[in-house]
Amino acid sequence: VLSFQIRAGVMAFLLVWAGMPNMAIAATTTVCDMAALNSTIASAGPGDVIKMCNRTWNNSKIVFQVNGTSSSPITLKAETPGKVFLTGSSQLYIAGRFAVVDGLVFKGRYTGSDFGIIRFQNERSGSCTDCRLTNVSVLEYNPSDSAKNTKWVIMHGARNRVDHSHFRGKT
């Protein structure tokens, strides 16, 4: 009886293990330019972490449209929190489900013509659900024309959150 139970257990393990190569495995990828960032976002799956290289990303329009899961969100984060700077006309669009953005810094003079810096929606109309913006700083990221009505964060969707972030110098 014991021999049969051991063989049955080994067979069950082999059947489960045989199906595992088809399962997606979460990856951590570090990207250092917009082409690599866009490509990595396009292929990201649940549990993946995309790290942006420590540097200044000038005039970068990031469209982080992904679909993670509640147990495996897709994360876009700074290689080192507080060391990834977005400047010039840089903007961030977060769309899809279970997306997390972590540790980015927007600073300097905002030179973009659009009124929203960080949006919980894609470029057109799709919103974000169960998304999170965390450990992000927006520091005096204002246009030179103070009459421009620039919004730093625009939220669309449901069950989104902004936490542990710092906003300073809004005009």
Shape: globular
Major β-sheet profile: 6 strands, parallel
Strand content of the residues, in percent? 35-45%
Rg for CA atoms: 20 Å
The low-confidence parts are 13-22
Distance, first to last CA? 77 Å
Label the structural class: alpha/beta
Structural summary, described in words:
The chain has 171 residues and is an alpha/beta fold. Helix content is 16%, strand content 43%. Mean pLDDT is 88; it is low at 13-22.
Topology:
Blueprint: H1 2-19, E1 28-31, H2 34-43, E2 49-52, E3 55-58, E4 61-67, E5 74-78, E6 84-87, E7 91-97, E8 99-102, E9 104-109, E10 116-120, E11 128-129, E12 132-134, E13 137-142, E14 151-155, E15 157-158, E16 161-163, E17 166-168
Distinctive features:
single chain, alpha/beta, six-stranded parallel sheet, globular
Task: Write a compact overview of the structure shown.
The protein has 171 residues and is α/β, with parallel strands linked by helices. The chain has two helices and 17 strands. Helix 2 links the parallel strand 1 (28-31) and strand 2 (49-52).
